[in-house]
Amino acid sequence: MDEVEVVVAHSERVTLRVGEVFLKIDGEQENLDVEVEAMALAPVPTPEILWRQRSVLAIAALPGKALGRLGEPSAASPAAWAAAGAAVRSLHEAPLPPWPGRRSRDEVAAHLDGECEWLITSGALPADLVKRNREIAEAALRPWTPVFIHGDLQITHVFVDGDKVTGIIDWSEASQGDAMYDLASLTLGHEERLPDLLAGYGTDVDLDVIRAWWSLRSLRASRWLIDHGFDPNTPGGEFDVLRSQMHAG
Fold it and tell me: What residue numbers bound the domain in which 85 lies?
């Protein structure tokens, strides 16, 4: 009998694994609708959809293993990271999905300022750390040409087998957005692997903007993580990213 493994669980969604099948249960039907449509449109390997019902999506497990995990050195080869970069580039060069991004730049900035205020007033982080990272994050809040982005391209969402990408999972945040956001998300906590990623993606990127997104994503995510039972202060997590930004050039 296959055991039921809880992959992730919080008040918004639950992902379970039963053998070679993942069950995604989401309280927001739109998230699953976006996921299904995005996987159909994306020009990269994605999991097979086995079936779906209201609020539940069943997908097949991918071969290989995740590119890495937050807080641990990635064991994937430089060639695997380059293959991931090439896959992301093909996504960004694909036709735009028909739905826009979920937040405008002004909305992102307003949300960021609210999260920074909370981090300071709650005592979660020192004020100077938050303010410095807010300054760094400003570089991301510039006009960009929208591309087809994954929107939640965490390192655990890209699967590789040897030097080949076998699939990318969790597409519920896919939309039109900033290409640099995907690159920053994939290298968050693994900043040293950015050159390997760009070897496959290409070098026409703004490194200051990627660095800005590292700060912006970490500042925006921290309260949500705390409120949903996760710890942004784990080794290699969001708080470590914010601390490392203080000493970056």
Answer: 63-246
